[in-house]
Known about the structure:
The complex is a heterodimer.
Chain A: H1 15-22, H2 26-37, H3 40-56, H4 67-82, H5 94-104, H6 114-118, H7 124-132, H8 136-147, H9 152-159, H10 163-187
Helix pairs in contact in A: 2-3, 2-4, 3-4, 4-9, 5-10, 7-10, 8-9, 8-10, 9-10
Chain B: H1 8-19, H2 25-37, H3 41-57, H4 66-83
Amino acid sequence: MPQAFEMPEHATPDLPSFEGITLPLLPELLRFARSLTHDQSNAEDLVQDVYLTALRSWHQYDPMSDCRNWLFTICRHRFYRVSSRAQRQVPVEDAELESLTAAALTMSSTPPGFVAVLEQDDMREAIRHAMETLPEPFRDVAILVDWHEHAYATAAGILGVPIGTVRSRLFRARRILQQRLLAHARDAGLTLTPPAIRTESAS
Amino acid sequence: MTMPMLDCEAVMRQLWDYLDRELTADNMHELELHLEQCEKCRPQAEFRRAFRGAVHEAREDVGDTTALTARIRAALQAAVRDGS
């Protein structure tokens, strides 16, 4: 449930103005919350908590900035704080970016037919599941960029990490997704010819 | 003046940035030129573009948010009222 709310004494928010700017963003915020919580009810509670937090902090909001990014930042912060989920350290950070990009140079082939498989309607659930079950740091970046179409710089701002970290996590997230979806397609008996994504060494 | 062609390694290194439109206009153009002409890189670009599109299309429809909007409006009004 959303936490108890206390309005700071100095804040006298203009509610119609606040609602006019923030409420049109509710569907997108709910989608983001849903991808974090994996649960509709918890996502709705989280979104309500975000709105109450945003109202309390409205005096800190810069009207020249993008309100969408501000709300996404609050949403992610509240999710990890309320759920007491410490962000795990991940093995991929800036220092690994070079080796990861080097791995990309192997020009790995993809199986003929994989694109057609990906575009099948019944792959949507598999793609969604693969995305939502990515390790958290990778998932957060992939959701912000691939589902919400945030620029790398915006995602970096929301996550509080350098752009290089966004880039490397996104690279890794997409590779994991490709591998999982390829495995899913094979398990489901979907037509794919020869084995495919070559194992890419990050060394 | 003609720009030097990028090599395949440079294209692969920047391919996700290109597909995510994170490059400068000049860099975007350079990659476009390379991909138009390179039969090695183009299939990889086409695959990644399709993959990216399929992932984007798989995002969930949040449905009707009318009830949640009303609930949040009520909570906001209560917060302002109780906090004043």
